[in-house]
Amino acid sequence: MKNPPTYRDEVVPFTARDGFACNLIHVLGKTSPTRGPVLLVHGAGVRANLFRAPAEVNVVDYLLSLGYDVWLENWRGSIDLAFNSWNIDQAAVYDHPAAVDAVLSHTGASTLKAIIHCQGSTSFMWAAVAGLLPRVNVIVSNAVSLHPVIPGWSHLKLPFAIPILKGQTAYIDCQWPDHPDSSIARAIVEAVRLTHHECNSIYCKMVSFTYGAGFPALWSHANLNEDTHTWIHQEFGKVPITFFEQMIECVRAGHLVPKTNLGLPADVTAQAPQTDARFALFAGLENKCFLPESQQRTYDWLNAHAPGRHTLHLIPNYGHLDVFMGKDASEDIFPLMAQELEAA
Ligand SMILES: [Zn+2]
């Protein structure tokens, strides 16, 4: 069992640019930071706490040990905030610029670095290349950014399932095994029980059903310790159908496409990146949610605009989330991310 953390949280509320109430968790270590702020941005249907899996050393522990000032963003996709049928353009235009402003205002720093994951990554990268995050100078992105590519099974499952679900529920909830709130919820939990036999956690199986093609979809069981496999239960919740609808359109287009008219270009890749930030893209080669090809395509696009400036790390034996939650990620992954945060 991991020792209790030696840090405490300061919750800093911030208001997104459309008025939506979000917050930041400022993680205060035993000593004052010796390096600048790093903002960590979670994915869909989870929350800021996702970065604090009970591995012996998680990414927050690791960054604190290096002296970073660590901030975790709860944007509108967080299960700690009011449920809403969000899309990623709203997160890009309304949430992340306001979060960056809040961190810089609180710390007095002039710039910050970011580590972003999945839909926190798509939306944050979108904001960055659209010129909305001029004070973010290094961005470490995991799994997917501007060019989502999904496995063949998801190509079949999503366009078939989402229109059916849409008429019956506004969300899929990985907490449904505890409190199914509709007949479709009960049917899905039963279907997951009947078709997934990879482990004894119905919550782990619900996550696989919801987010990918695999048993399990977002991690390899061999990469997680037992505490983390149990901890998953409390970390995954509702994800709106609107998100899946948007992702189907993005996958078909081959790049992110907006759902609302917030001033983002219809094709995010049609213009050069409007930022001086340096990008380090990570992808687990075993990712069964978004294929590593996703990050490869974004890297190729970035590299075409600034040859040699950005980096791509394709990581063997890791998938989607064990990159952060894995028991050995502090040896296999975090040093590479820290190296990228520090590179000139
Ligand atoms: Zn499992």
Give the SSE layout.
Layout: E1 8-15, E2 21-28, E3 37-41, H1 59-65, E4 69-74, H2 88-107, E5 112-117, H3 118-129, E6 136-142, H4 152-166, E7 171-173, H5 183-195, H6 202-211, H7 226-235, E8 238-240, H8 241-253, E9 278-284, H9 293-305, E10 311-315, H10 322-325, H11 329-332, H12 334-342
Parallel strand pairs: 3-4, 3-5, 5-6, 6-9, 9-10
Antiparallel strand pairs: 1-2, 2-4, 7-8
Zinc ion is lined by residues 198-199, 201, 204, 216, 221, 229.
The sequence of SSEs as H and E is EEEHEHEHEHEHHHEHEHEHHH
Structurally, the number of domains stands at 2
Strand element count = 10
Q: Could you give me the name of the CATH homologous superfamily of the largest domain?
A: Alpha/Beta hydrolase fold, catalytic domain
Biggest pleated-sheet summary:
8 strands, mixed
Broad CATH class of the largest domain? Alpha Beta
Strand content: 15-25%
Tally of helical runs: 12
> How do the strands of the widest beta sheet line up side by side?
1-2-4-3-5-6-9-10
Distinct small molecules bound, one entry per kind: zinc ion
CATH topology of the largest domain: Rossmann fold
Radius of gyration: 19 Å
* Distance between the first and last residues' Cα: 38 Å
Structure description:
The chain has helices at residues 59-65, 88-107, 118-129, 152-166, 183-195, 202-211, 226-235, 241-253, 293-305, 322-325, 329-332, 334-342, and strands at residues 8-15, 21-28, 37-41, 69-74, 112-117, 136-142, 171-173, 238-240, 278-284, 311-315. With 344 residues, the protein is an alpha/beta fold. The protein has two domains: 8-150 and 255-342, Rossmann fold (3-Layer(aba) Sandwich), CATH 3.40.50.1820; 152-242, no CATH class. The strands form two sheets. The chain has an eight-stranded mixed beta sheet with strand order 1-2-4-3-5-6-9-10, sandwiched between helices. A two-stranded antiparallel ribbon has the order 7-8. A hairpin with a 5-residue loop joins strand 1 (8-15) and strand 2. Helix 2 packs across helix 3 (118-129) and helix 4 crosses helix 8. The longest helix is centred in the first third of the chain and has 20 residues, at 88-107. The model has no long low-confidence stretch (mean pLDDT 95). The protein binds zinc ion (ZN). Zinc ion binds next to loops.
